[in-house]
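Intended use. Records like the one below are meant for learning the mapping from a protein sequence to its folded structure. Do not use them to infer anything beyond what is encoded.
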Amino acid sequence: MDDENGLVLDFASSGRNGCGTLTAKCADEVIHVEYLNIGKSKSRQQYVSKVCDNRPKLDRKALEDELMKLAANLSQSETSADPAALPELDAAAIVRPERFIMPEVSGLAVPTMTTVGDKVQGRWHLYLRWADGKRERRPMSSSLELPNGRRLFIHPEPAEPTPNMKAGWDRTARRRWFDGEAAPNAAEVFKDLCERIAYFLDLPREHAKGMTATLAVWIMLTYGYSSWDAVPYLYIGGPLGSGKSRVFEILLRLVFRPLSSSNMTGAALFRTLHSQGGVLLLDEAERLRNTTDPATAEILSMLLAGYKRGGTATRLEPLGDNGFRTLSFDVYGPKALACIAGLPPALASRAIPLMMFRSPPGSEKPRRRIDTDPAGWQRLRDDLHALALEHGPTWLELPERGDVCPAMSGRDYELWQPLLALASWIESHGARGLLKLLQEHALRSIDANKDEQTPDADETLLRILTDEIRMGMTPTPGDILAKAQTVDAAGFKMWKARGVSEHLKRYGAVTHKSCGRKVYKVTLETLRTIQTSYGVDLGVDENLGES
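Structure written out for the chain above:
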């Protein structure tokens, strides 16, 4: 449709049954975009109402007639269409709404508020930065037309923002960006983050620079994590009163779309992450060690899956006919976890540790009020949003930067590569020495963390197994448990032989059947590999003999 008022209607069909994206424009300005079933009268009427709310002078009746014609034409064409001719959609053409980065366009969704009559109504708007430098703001839609003719589909469609949902990116800053204000310098943003962190946190002097840089780069990563296939969690540890809560206060004011929680149910957590994305800040994570509690186990399972792209939480939802359907919720994204007692080993292996200590006597930092400078926090958030949109496609190249991770492999590489690659990029914008600083801190952290990778109980079991193998024995899990109970009666009081088998299996020590018994026939070479990989001293030297 192209009427005398300058209104242009464009309908992009998506599949069959009248579903597609309908865009209304006036003089190249997008008035309203919506994914709807154009064949349904109610959907058309609602669409007309929204368009006319924005352009009251439009002829409502003429608009309704045009939509009816579009629906009739579409219905006729679908009747003759061959279902087998419909193309299969590439999964790479589907992106999440809150933050997506493609070679052609970088975008993020921002909640905005307006009034309809005497009621506040929330709406989502997409802020887009195209590869040719064009900046655009448009209402949320279910798809985008790319310059090369491909279509980008946005899923899931977020629920309407509630009136109390605040945009991290200030309205005035958004307008300046849209009007062409230059994006901030990455090195300057990094410097500002470090200064803000150092102002509020007492960190060990010998590690302060590395810890501050790690925290600042991780905050920046939360605005572009979708470029990577895996993202490191942040583990904030330390004794009571060491500043863990203060770290969370800083993260809450700086990370991309924070979700703070210490008592949400598993279902509420993964549904919220699926619908709005963002960064989970989970305090009091000690409860995750209680894996016998089904509710806790559900949260732990979600966290273990959510550090890799495609990580989902799956649930069975009841249907009206007493049946069930399987639903998967996308939970991929950065997460920060704080606790005193330490994380479960499997979860700790997905996190970069940031160990806090109590402030020295007389320090002013714990007494500094976090919100005496709200404008300063807002400026940092505005800079981070603008920086992410401006350089998003450039970040797509960073996951290939293997050269930034010397002497790292396996999970260590997976955790630190995103931070080190991003640090290298920030350094290229003026932060001299940042990459070397973070590399050195990463290697120290990895080395210091080796002692934490192997729980005390596991270390006891591995040493007993090593002693048995040295003596030429082929012990059963029950034999090892019996010796462990003599070493630590209280610690192994409630253990079963099956538990011993499960724990040793994590390190590659598995049983074999022999004369009807399950026994260990582990070689000293296997034990040396365990000793090297997990940093536990089993007394096996480099020549596979005894030390």
